[in-house]
Amino acid sequence: MKTIFSTLFLVVFSVVFHAQNKWETAKKTALENKELILLNFSGSDWCIPCIKLHKNIIETEDFKKLETENVIVYLNADFPRNKKNQLSAELKKENASLADQYNQKGIFPYTLLLNAEGKVLKTWEGLIPGDALAFSKEIREIKETQKQ
């Protein structure tokens, strides 16, 4: 009986977990923690400016502090081309949906700062100018203006 209950619980949990995609999870987390959402469209294995953006900004400690200090929820909508880097069908579908909503021109990289409801507060087309510290400071300043 215990095994049947455990199996049933895991099946129900996995269905609920998969039904809540990363976009919905990001919005929920941002709302609960009073954070902004940073949505980045990238081509991780073919777009040179995207690769530079990730290396010089997204992967830095200054940027990661934005996440650990509950300033932003970071969401990457990636569109890789190499076969070895392909995403799951579910993730491809979600990224395409995000692109339909926020990146209809197909710009790469394209970065948006959104509130928890998904309203666009600021956008950056192409490689973000400056360094990670300046970018982090700009995001913090925008968040401060949202509190008022």
UniProtKB/TrEMBL annotation:
Alphabetical UniProt keywords: Signal
Occurrences of domain Thioredoxin-like fold (ranges): 31-133
Top-level taxonomic group: Bacteria
Span of the signal peptide: 1-19
Keyword Signal assigned: yes
The name this protein goes by in its record: Thioredoxin-like
